[in-house]
Design goal:
The complex is a heterodimer of chains A (267) and B (348). Chain A has 267 residues and is α/β, with parallel strands linked by helices. In chain A, 31% of the residues lie in helices and 29% in strands. Chain A has 9 helices and 12 strands. In chain A, the strands form 3 sheets. Chain A has a 6-stranded mixed sheet, with helices on both faces. In chain A, strands 2-1-4-5 form a 4-stranded antiparallel sheet, covered by helices on one side. In chain A, a hairpin with a 2-residue loop joins strand 9 (209-214) and strand 10 (217-222). The mean pLDDT of chain A is 90. Chain B has a single domain (77-343), classed as ABC transporter involved in vitamin B12 uptake, BtuC (Orthogonal Bundle), CATH 1.10.3470. Chain B has 15 helices and no strands. Mean pLDDT of chain B is 88; it is low at 1-12. In chain B, 74% of the residues lie in helices and 0% in strands. At the A-B interface, helix 2 and strand 6 of A face helix 1, helix 10 and helix 11 of B.
Chain lengths: 267, 348
């Protein structure tokens, strides 16, 4: 199982500047890839290309060695699930209803989910620790719980590649931690996870790969401990940071600390 | 993960008994039908109505005279069927549009169907083409309005749903202005009152031909919406999320919008413009049955039909002359909607 992006370039219009400029990378089973970069550098656009929402790009995107341009939405959905930022829903479905929507691909056009599908949904919710919320209104639970419900929905979809657009945006400190832990567990179970984040520490803590994008180009790609350094973060975000290293009981850690008074001008 | 106090309260929340509520809704609708046959200038007891309605199927000794028979079968039956069809169609279309546009404040005339139908009817009245042609013109007018809105929105960039709503408003105001112009030039003794009366909505003139014409189209248009109702849930999440779950969003949205438009246009063509029903009934259904379209669509059909029947009963009984039903639905619908907004604010 793998995702390979080769020389991906994209512009919304013929005459407008490139949002993505010759982006290449690949991920394989068990990878948790954190995509970093300032606002508006094309992270979401890249995800939309990989998910097949946008298809007027140059280059190719291979999913398990198959070009996704040759696949229908239905076929793509069997392999990739999308976990958007949790927003307040228009209609207040129950959490179970939301998770059940993940089985869309498995039910025929004119029918609805059956008991087996409902059991799948319960199992997914249980594995994420939100089974007690099944009858709650999706609009009434916390942002962290909503994010977990969306992850449960992706698990029910049975796709092995999960794409998450800033899964920790709008979450409080505790929920960020809980959601990221579940996500890194999923990577250990063999899912491919590609997520965008604004926090370099999330890359250090949870990711085994990091992709730094600036101006639509990949400017760093590799293991977070190796490629994320103070110079790169200064270059991209315009902030002076100190990378602190320490040893806990279980592993070696790196953390990123902004240096006081060293906030430079962002270009 | 530690449960917060909020989770605990959520955990103990009981799911309402939707099945029982649905059975009660059906019973209420059936009672509405029985009562509707009885009320009016020539009033009949529910027992007589019951026997009369069964008489064509079962051999029941006649305890009624021909006048009673004629009132039930020739006068009230077409009108009752028309009210049920129009109410069910507008409510179903409203529920469908609200889901497709991810906006609970959308009503079935959002894409200009009512305005187009109103213009078509006025044109037919202005040209003195007769009541059959008024219905046909109204139906075609409604379809043309939505078609124009659709074509305009296809030529724009950006969000498909937003541009459709904007195009619908644009087309709606264009057709409303055209209607105003016809009213200006129409003959003030004959045509203008008829136009005005048509635009206020009424089921007084509903004939069995109208019922058959509208019934066929409404059943054909409602069927796909009914069958696709679970998928409509997924589409309410928005274009990208629905696509990511493997739904062909363009095709599904197109089918649902075509069907909803068809049944709106045909309902308006036999009843005139009746507001509020398509907006309020789906909300009422959500309050009683939750948000799942699997139950919202059948509930809207039944509640919409029953509600329209009830309002029509008032339309023909509260005053010595008929009160246009479009006026009554607004009088009844607006307070109900205010109530919903105040009471249901936290759930919707």
């Amino acid at each position: 199982m793998s995702v390979r992006v080769n020389h991906l370039s994209f512009a919304y219009d013929k005459h407008s500047p490139l949002v993505l400029n010759d982006v290449s990378f690949s991920v394989k089973e068990g990878d948790l890839l954190a995509v970093l970069g300032p606002n508006g550098v094309g992270k979401s656009t890249m995800f939309r290309c990989i998910l097949g929402f946008l298809n007027k790009y140059d280059g190719e995107i291979l999913m398990n060695d198959v070009n996704i341009k040759t696949l229908t939405h239905k076929q793509i959905a069997k392999q990739v699930a999308y976990i958007p930022q949790s927003t307040h829903p228009v209609f207040n479905y129950s959490v179970l209803d939301v998770v059940l929507m993940g089985v869309t691909n498995q039910v025929s056009l004119l029918s609805a989910p059956n008991q087996a599908h409902i059991n799948q949904a319960y199992a997914a919710m249980e594995s994420l620790g939100i089974d007690h919320l099944r009858d709650a209104g999706y609009g009434e639970i916390s942002g962290g719980e909503r994010q977990l419900a969306l992850i449960a929905r992706a698990l029910v979809q049975k796709a092995k590649i999960l794409i998450m657009d800033e899964p920790t945006a709008n979450l409080d400190y505790g929920n960020q931690f809980r959601v990221m832990c579940r996500i890194s567990d999923l990577a250990k179970e063999g899912y491919i996870i590609i997520l965008s984040t604004h926090n370099p520490d999330h890359a250090f803590l949870y990711a085994n790969r990091v992709l730094m994008i600036q101006g639509g180009k990949v400017i760093a790609d590799g293991c977070p401990d190796e490629v994320l350094d103070a110079k790169l973060i200064k270059d991209v975000y315009g902030v002076d940071v100190h990378i602190e290293e320490f040893q806990s009981n279980t592993r070696h850690h790196k953390l990123c600390i902004p240096v006081e008074g060293g906030v430079g001008k962002q270009r | 993960m530690p449960d917060t106090a909020k989770n605990q309260s959520v955990k103990t929340r009981k799911m309402p008994n939707y099945k029982l509520r649905f059975i009660l809704l059906i019973l209420a609708a059936l009672i509405c039908i029985l009562v509707s046959f009885g009320v009016g200038r020539f009033s009949l007891s529910p027992y007589d109505v019951f026997l009369l309605l069964l008489s064509p199927i079962f051999p029941i000794t006649e305890t009624w005279d021909y006048a009673m028979f004629s009132v039930v079968f020739n006068i009230r039956l077409p009108r009752i069927l028309a009210a049920i069809l129009v109410g069910a169609a507008l409510s179903t279309a409203g529920a469908a549009y609200q889901g497709m546009f991810q906006n609970p404040l959308v009503s079935p005339d959002i894409l200009g169907a009512s305005a187009g139908a109103g213009f078509g009817a006025c044109l037919a009245i202005y040209l003195s083409l007769g009541s059959g042609m008024v219905t046909i013109f109204a139906f075609v007018g409604g379809l043309i309005a939505v078609l124009i809105a659709y074509l305009v929105s296809r030529m724009t960039k950006g969000s498909a749903t937003l541009s459709m709503v904007l195009a619908g408003i644009l087309v709606g105001s264009l057709f409303s202005a055209s209607t105003s112009y016809i009213k200006l030039v129409a003959d003030t003794t004959e045509q203008l009152p008829e136009i005005t009366y048509w635009l206020m909505g009424s089921l007084a003139g509903a004939t069995m031909d109208d019922v058959i014409f509208a019934g066929i189209i409404i059943i054909l248009g409602t069927l796909p919406i009914f069958l696709l109702r679970w998928r409509m849930n997924v589409l309410t999440l928005g274009e990208d999320e629905a696509k990511s779950m493997g739904i062909n969003t363009h095709r599904l949205r197109f089918v649902v919008i075509v069907c909803a438009t068809l049944i709106t246009a045909v309902a308006v063509s036999i009843s005139g413009i009746i507001g509020w029903v398509g907006l309020v009934i789906p909300h009422f259904c959500r309050m009683l049955f939750g948000y799942d379209y699997r139950i919202i669509i059948p509930a809207s059909i039944i509640m919409g039909g029953g509600f329209m029947l009830l309002v029509d009963d008032f339309a023909r009984t509260i005053a010595t002359t008929e009160v246009p039903i479009g006026i009554l639905t607004a009088f009844v619908g607006a307070p109900i909607f205010a109530y919903l907004l105040i009471m249901g604010g936290k759930r919707s």
